[in-house]
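W.,

You were right to be curious about this one. When I first looked at the sequence I had no strong expectations either way, so I just let the prediction run and decided to look at it fresh. Below is the sequence, 245 residues in total, followed by the output.
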Amino acid sequence: MATCPKGHDSATLDYCEVCGARMGAAPSSAPAASPPSSPSPSSPSPSSAPASPSSASPSASASVEVCPVCGTPKTGRFCEEDGYDFLLAPPVPSAESPAPPAPAEAPATPAASWEVVVRADTAYFEVVKAMGGEDAGSLAMPRFVAERRFPLTGQQMVIGRRSRSRGVNPDIDLVGPPEDPGVSHLHALLVPQEGGWAVVDMESANGTYVNDPSSSPLDPHVPVALKDGDVVYLGAWTALTIHST
């Protein structure tokens, strides 16, 4: 271990790692009474002399650290001019190498969401009446049916009528009031597909129709893709319109 002019033991040989004094000066017999010797800017030692800016390569000058107090380039732990300790403070980059700006993040695109609107359809009810059937004569269109909306989420949405005895609790419950008697307890499913949803008839008693209630009913257990605005008809008067929101 070398000893600085103030009597401190230092592992560094250019400046004292304790007080920052130049190590080249002769030690004093009374370190506490004699002032520390000031480094001479005009006669730096060969080992600590700053490199000439003209001789430094462009890549080296771009990453040089400077003293934040006087601007002298760093050549060791301590600044040659004022003794600033680079080890105990964060390095200060030179003005030649500014930090690049952080790239702007692209705004996130929200995923499309879907919902189904349930209403009573008078035109569909007239089609059902015209098709006949053993219960057609007793059917009566309700005077008022409130419109209901159900968000489409999860892996499937069950359409039907709630039944405690059968343990059926559909996600889209059409039990009423008023209750559509033509809707089976487990009538159909809405299942997600890429870019939208599909409807699957679950062997319902009165069938499931898409867009045209006078067409043939859907084959059971076969998914049929739905587009935004498509209408699913089931029961005696119930129409479910699929919307992308």
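Here's what jumped out at me. The first strand starts at residue 2 and ends at 3. And, maybe more interesting for your project: Residues 228 and 243 are 5 Å apart (CA to CA).

Coffee later to discuss?

I.
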